[in-house]
Specification:
Radius of gyration: 36 Å
Helix content: 10-25%
Number of helices: 3
Distance between the termini: 56 Å
Largest sheet: 7 strands, antiparallel
Number of strands: 13
Structural class: mainly beta
Order of helices and strands: HEEEEEHHEEEEEEEE
Length: about 300
């Protein structure tokens, strides 16, 4: 091969390598979800922040499960157990025995006048006695300044019973179970009590709010669909103090795993040009058939 022809072969090979690199680099990666499937049992923002615990994530579409028997020590919330699972466009959460504001009223000392009124209640006919408007002390939670009229009671006997035999928590939830698959999901919530009194849960499918102001505002079955294709469902969102403290219980996000993009080469591939100084390879010999006598 002539030298100018060899240079032409080398140039064409190099250009071909550059074209191949450009095609790989500009290949689309598809409309991948910007977030993987994930799930967590508890999180909180505000005066007492709590990271998502326990937290499961599935960036590869495989099933991942994690659990926790207790939360980091904090004065706001406790749980008995929580399980979180995430997979390919699916997720679920199981949460048991949630206590928000443990022993919140046990620190309240009855004012002398209220204590005297409670001691002098008649055995009958006290249901019509009004509730006195007396300030309550700081309960250690991000709540506004409260008085006895802010408590969920109807009359003086109810108030005396609440303060003399205080409940174990501000809010108590037996269980919260949440699941999602694709862009659908569901919520199952056990008994919910506010200062020991049972709260009726709405039967609506999505986004119902239970106003219990000024103690708490509770949103049930909060759902969100995002432009990246992901879908999130949260069992309970508890707002204390008008946004001062937000607690989220049992949240699941469904999304498809992002496809792995084609690796980009670090340099263009090259093709070895033929060597001009090497002699051509010899032609293999052709066998000739003959008949030889056999002796023996």
């Amino acid at each position: 091969m002539r030298p100018d022809l060899a240079r032409t072969v080398t140039t064409v090979a190099a250009v071909g390598g550059v074209v191949a690199f450009t095609v790989v680099a500009s290949a689309p990666v598809g409309n991948a979800a910007a977030r993987p499937s994930s799930a967590y049992a508890v999180s909180a923002d505000g005066q007492f922040p709590i990271a998502k615990t326990p937290y499961a994530e599935s960036p590869d579409g495989k099933r991942h499960t994690t659990s926790a028997l207790e939360l980091p020590k904090n004065p706001l919330i406790s749980v008995r157990a929580g399980n979180a699972t995430a997979g390919n466009d699916s997720a679920s959460v199981e949460l048991f025995d949630v206590v928000v504001g443990p022993d919140i009223l046990s620190q309240v000392k009855l004012p002398p006048e209220l204590k005297q009124s409670c001691a002098n209640l008649p055995a009958q006919g006290a249901d019509d006695l009004p509730i006195p408007d007396l300030p309550l002390p700081d309960l250690g939670l991000p709540l506004p300044k409260l008085s006895t009229k802010d408590l969920p009671v109807k009359n003086l006997p109810d108030l005396c019973n609440l303060l003399l035999t205080p409940p174990s928590s501000l809010l108590g939830i037996d269980s919260v179970n949440v699941w999602c698959s694709g862009d659908e999901g569901g919520v199952d919530i056990g008994a919910l009590t506010l200062l020991g009194q049972r709260i009726a849960l709405p039967t609506t499918k999505q986004g119902a709010t239970i106003p219990a102001a000024p103690l708490a505002t509770i949103t049930v079955n909060e759902q969100a669909k995002r432009t990246d294709g992901s879908f999130t469902i949260t069992g309970l969102t508890i707002d204390l103090g008008g946004g001062t403290q937000i607690i989220r219980l049992a949240s699941a996000t469904c999304a498809k795993p992002a496809p792995h993009p084609t690796p980009k080469p670090t340099h263009p591939p090259t093709t070895e040009p033929p060597q001009l100084n090497e002699p051509p390879a010899a032609t293999p010999p052709t066998p000739v058939k003959t008949h030889q006598p056999v002796t023996g």
